[in-house]
Design a protein that fits this description.
The chain is mostly helical. Helix content is 62%, strand content 0%. It has four helices and no strands. α1 runs antiparallel to α2, α2 runs antiparallel to α4 and α3 crosses α4. The protein starts with a helix and ends in a 23-residue tail after the last helix.
Length: 100
């Protein structure tokens, strides 16, 4: 029973950190961590842009885009660069932030 309580406490703590986060990049990272998605911020921003163009995005990416639209818009307004997608390549994040 003790470990379940700790897990619940940790979950609530992560939710609070997410809700109180003001940096859009870090807020996206925290959302991805909460939902246990393996997307990068770069991929989420690209998914948002793809959706705007009418390109298919997966159900889980729609979840990200729907819940993170405000944060994504702020990043784009701040000049966040989205690299073109190329087959078989990995994308480096323009910025790395540690989530605790």
């Amino acid at each position: 029973m003790e470990s379940a309580c700790i897990t619940e406490y940790e979950r609530r703590e992560k939710e609070r950190k997410y809700e109180n986060e003001t940096d859009p990049y870090t807020k996206i990272l925290r959302f991805l961590e909460q939902r246990r998605y393996s997307y990068t911020v770069q991929a989420v921003v690209r998914g948002y842009l793809d959706k705007q163009k009418g390109i298919y995005i997966s159900h889980s990416m729609k979840d990200c885009v729907t819940n993170l639209t405000d944060e994504i818009k702020v990043l784009l307004d701040e000049g966040y660069e989205v690299f073109e997608k190329t087959v078989g390549s990995e994308f480096d994040e323009a910025r790395t932030v540690e989530c605790h």
